[in-house]
Amino acid sequence: MRALVYEAFGVRPTIETVPDPVPTPDGVVVEVGASGVCRSDWHGWMGHDPDIRLPHVPGHELAGTIVAIGTQVTSFRVGDRVTVPFVAGCGRCEPCRAGQQQVCHAQFQPGFTHWGSFAQFVALGYADQNLVRLPDAMDFATAASLGCRFATSFRAVSQQGRLRGGEWMAVHGCGGVGLSAVMIAQALGGRVIAVDIDDDRLALAGRLGAEVTVNGRTTPDVPAAIMEATDGGAHLSLDALGHPQTLRNSVLGLRTRGRHVQVGLLLADHAQPPVPMDRVIARELELLGSHGMAAHAYPELLGMIGRGVLNPAALVGQRIGLEGAADALTGMDAFTGTGVTVIDSF
Q: Does this model's pTM top 0.90?
């Protein structure tokens, strides 16, 4: 098969012919129909993820068709159209038994713990516990955009963040995760204030439902601007970027007893950032993490998409071939723009 491979961290990947994968007894092989290009892929390519072993094929936001199954797989068949959460649970550990596969102790992550979806085929383990059948009407590019960004945002806003109608939610960072969160919060009846340093992204956030936008590059005090716009602070705030400054701004922009959800990854030198704990204690703030969404939670999300309440297809921007994936990965800012970049030609 053709695959995008890197032999060293930070060195431009190349397209290579590598052996086709074979399914594990509990796994499947999927012919990739589309794969998202995510900032997490960039972090992996930069060497920020300790799970990656070289040489490596990245890619974790995927959708496609099952072409081979392992002997232990009972719930899926060759020909099924599927997607998968970017964190797949083993189904046996304590978190999995509690329905929290997104924090599985032995998690399978295509593109990180194993070769990923920047290839014609990808092998996926723990298939019965983690694959999600796609509605017939959903195209692969839209489905691929769910796997990390949209599903992660959905759980962060609705389950971890517990957003209620009429509450203010601040979104710090209007990339794929942040823009998804804006759309989801608006659909759930929330009032959204979007923060970014790019006016085009802020404009798109406005079109997706943000009532207020704040340019963090030109606003001297972002938390103060949020406090003023929301008459006392956000009830819920997401750091959708993953940076010490956006984390700090998110916490400081909360009203009393507000909820901060950390969605964006803080890696490498940013892995242990300072947090304004004096504010957390004095105002009884909640600090929560959000790490993907388990497969059993997808029906609610897919139902809202099917009813037209949510439209993740609106976030799909550039569609590139495998040849363009190296450019997209190594020049992340230039290629992601204000939409979700997907590989849909292999």
A: yes
